[in-house]
Each structure stands twice: as C-alpha cells, then as structure tokens.
Amino acid sequence: MYLEHWNLNLFPFENVADEHFFFESDVHRTLREDLQDGIMRRKGAIALTGGIGCGKSTLIQRTLLSLPEDRFDIALINYPCLTSIEMLFEICQQLGLEPNQNDRSSMLHTLQEHLIKNAETGRDTLICIDEAQSIPSLETFEELRLLLNFQLGGRFLMSLLFVGQPELQRKIAEIPQLQQRIALHLNLQKMQAQDTTHYILHRLRIAGSTQPILTRQAVERIYQHTTGIPRRINHLLDRCLLVGMREGAALLDSKLVEATMQRYPC
Known about the structure:
The chain is of the alpha/beta class. It has helices spanning 3-6, 26-40, 56-66, 84-94, 104-120, 138-147, 167-173, 176-181, 193-206, 216-226, 230-246, 254-263; strands spanning 45-50, 72-77, 124-129, 151-152, 155-156, 159-164, 182-188.
C-alpha cells in the first residue's frame, strides 16, 4: 500500500474502466463525438478498432453513458465468443426478452417485435459488441449483418456497434455485404507524448495528488517504454509508485523508472 507515502486518496493507475479517472484527449473527444453522431443518426453499423490496451472499452463506456437514457435501449455484449444462435439469444436477453432459446425463428420474431415497439415509442435500439474480433465464426457475423434488414419507414430498427482490435477489420472484410454496411470506420490510436503527460497528471490529480510526484525525464522514459498505450502506462506507473515507496523516494525519476522496468517487465 503506497497511498500514504505519496499522499494519495485512491490508487491512480488501476486498469479498470473507472468513470472518475476518464481522460479525454482531443483525439478521444473527436472519436466520441463521431460515435455519438453515428449512433444518434441511426447509421446502422459502426466499427471502432484500436490496439490492445488503447482504451477502447473505456471510450465505449463513456459514449454509452452519454446517450439519453430515455431514448436508447442498449445491449452491451462483452463476451462475444458465441455461435450465431447463442448471439441472438444473448441479444434478446440483454434487451429483457425471453424467447425460446433453441428456436432461431422464435428469437428473430420476438426481437423484431421488440424493435418495432421501440421505434413506435421513439426509442432507438443499440447493440454494442466489445472484443468483436473474438467472434468465432463468419456465420455469427453474417447473423448480425442480417439483423440490419430489420427496417421500417426508411430507418434501421437497430444499430450495431462493433468494437475490437485491428484484426476485426480483416474479419469484417471477409464478408463484403457486412463491410458495405459499415457506415463509419473509426480507429483509436496510441497517445502522443503530450497527451501521455496530461493523462498521467490527470490520474494523479483525481487520486488526490497535490504535489509533484514525477520528474519530466521520468515521464519521457515512461512514454518511450509504453509508446503511449494507457494500459501499459498504468501497469508501469503502479509498479513505480510501489518501488518508490519501498525505497523512500520523494520523486519518481528516470533512474527509478528504468529500475522498475527491469524488475517488472510490462
């Protein structure tokens, strides 16, 4: 426990999606606005990709929380390693529906009725699939694509949001009909050096820091090692704060960061 040593109230670099620690760079803000625009305008299908640990899930959580609760009926699927019929059933369950689990026709009929009811009452239905690159078969992707055929009065009855690692784009490209339905392709890049500095300082401030904890050279070394990937930054800095406490350090400098990197590769 290093909180007392560094005069912090919270652990600043936990790798969980915590709304309190959300950091929005200009790049994140633009992506979030693009996502919101695509969702609010019922674009049909949207794909967001980014490397491991870049903050896709955190960005999606922030985006979903910003949508008007009274307008959107949202199914968020975090474990998409499902067959096509399992995916249909999971979507139905997420939307509070209880069709026959083993009857595809029953599930589709129940889902369509629900989508129409939502549309008639002014609600939009959004299906968000995180880690979508883990969908195990093209058959499941095809099942999802066919759901976009649910339309009424010149509008999609539901929107699909695929979120995943870069290989997701390759999987989507294997189904030209689905690729053509993706109205918006977005990519979340690694943070640049300046944003990395702001990210670190932001999380420390939210955790209760009122005095400098890192030297400029330490931040530069952290950026060089992590290449601006938030998850790697969190891993490294959490270890640095622990090592700094053990050594009685008043500041994290580049030497301590280097020693921590050697001791705890990440």
